[in-house]
Design goal:
The chain is mostly beta strands and about 240 residues long. It is about 5% helix and about 55% strand. It starts with a strand and ends with a strand.
């Protein structure tokens, strides 16, 4: 695979505020895809993206400091050409509107799969005292249309949040106590499957054939179409610093 990209950056910094804007355009060639059950350098891709970031630090009187940030990624289009001349009939406007799958029978082959068009990362670090710090991390992914070989046509949007607490010099100097809760609200969500992702999500069953014999009909392929992600987790750590 080969990639070429052009990116611009605009940055604004003043006092405790930072803002950044980065539009970019990427061309990918010889992209590996599954063709007739084999991996081949089959596709050409063009992806337009815009990254926006905002960072702000507060110093309220009742806390040492609060640092916040939010990053947004928007992909107006993610076009793909697999050598199918029909992809030329789909305009950039069709891709921006996000209706390629609905308006074109072959649309799934003409856009890059497994990509969220909108992604948001947000967080805050709160320093309560010199010893106690809390960090909150949240993220949102919009629905992801999958690759053409995946029977599950789209992966649902999801949002999760993690929280970390750190107490420095716990009991003794250099010993830090940490508490981390991942997926705080126990969200149920999935990521797209890997490779061809052809297994589907229909349970297997015994099927009666035309000759009157029963046979097991299960997954359509060997690679998961959806990959379940971890539920809520709690982790307690002790970290020691040595000079």
């Amino acid at each position: 695979e080969k990639a070429t990209s052009v990116e611009a950056g605009i940055y604004y910094n003043k006092d405790n505020l930072s803002i950044q804007l980065s539009p970019y355009l990427t061309w990918n060639s010889n992209v590996v895809d599954v063709v007739d059950g084999r991996f081949e350098n089959a596709n050409e891709q063009q992806i337009m993206g815009v990254d926006i970031g905002l960072m702000k630090t507060f110093t309220p009187s009742w806390l040492r400091s609060v640092r916040t940030w939010v990053y947004l990624t928007w992909l107006p289009w993610a076009k793909q050409d697999s050598g199918n001349i029909l992809c030329n009939n789909i305009s950039t406007g069709d891709h921006i509107m996000g209706t390629v799958d609905e308006d074109y029978e072959y649309g799934r082959e003409c856009r890059v799969g497994d990509i969220s068009r909108i992604k948001v990362w947000a967080g805050a670090q709160v320093n309560f005292t010199q010893s106690l710090t809390s960090t909150v991390l949240a993220r949102f992914y919009s629905a992801r249309p999958t690759v053409a070989s995946n029977p599950v046509e789209s992966v649902d949007a999801f949002a999760t949040m993690d929280i970390n607490l750190t107490y420095r010099n716990f009991v003794m100097d250099g010993l830090n106590l940490g508490l981390r809760v991942g997926n705080l609200f126990n969200a149920v969500y999935f990521h797209p499957g890997v490779n061809g992702a052809t297994a589907g999500d229909t349970p297997g069953e015994m099927v009666m054939g035309e000759d009157g014999t029963e046979s097991w009909q299960g997954s359509s392929g060997s690679y998961n179409s959806l990959i379940p992600q971890p539920a809520r987790s709690i982790q307690i750590t002790l970290q020691s610093d040595f000079d």
